[in-house]
Amino acid sequence: MREITERPEAVKAGTVILVGTDAKKITTETQKLLDDTSYYQALSKLHNPYGDGKASERIISFMKAKA
Fold first, then answer.
1. Which of 6, 7, 26, 62 stands the most exposed, by the fewest C-beta atoms within 10 Å?
2. CA pair distance 33, 19, nearest whole angstrom
3. Is 5 helix (H, G, I), strand (E, B) or coil?
4. How would you classify residue 47: left for phi > 0, otherwise alpha for psi between -120 and 50, otherwise beta?
5. DSSP 42
6. Tens digits of residue pLDDT in 10-59
7. CA distances from 25 to 1, 22, 60 (A)
């Protein structure tokens, strides 16, 4: 809920929607995600430019292997 972001790569990838600060647009975009299953599913399958969320698991495995 801002006009600009320090993470334009996420906007470009489509994993972030920059909605600005207009309450109506925020509500509309949120409702679309909640109501439109196909829209939500499409966004949820996009490539995350920040990785797969499994870094901590890999770190723990690495540390256990070195112990």
1. 6
2. 13
3. coil
4. beta
5. H
6. 999 999 999 999 999 999 999 999 999 999 999 999 998 999 889 999 99
7. 10, 5, 41
Please state the length of the chain: 67
Distance of CA 64 to the CA centre of its chain: 30
Q: How confident is the model at residue 67 (pLDDT cuts 50, 70, 90)?
A: confident
- Cα separation, 36 vs 45, whole angstroms: 15
Q: Which amino acid is at 26?
A: I
CA distances from 62 to 20, 38, 47, 58, 59 (A): 41, 38, 25, 6, 5
Structure-token pair, residue 58: 């890999």
Tokens of 66: 């070195």
The Cα–Cα gap between 62 and 59 comes to 5
Position 5: which residue type? T
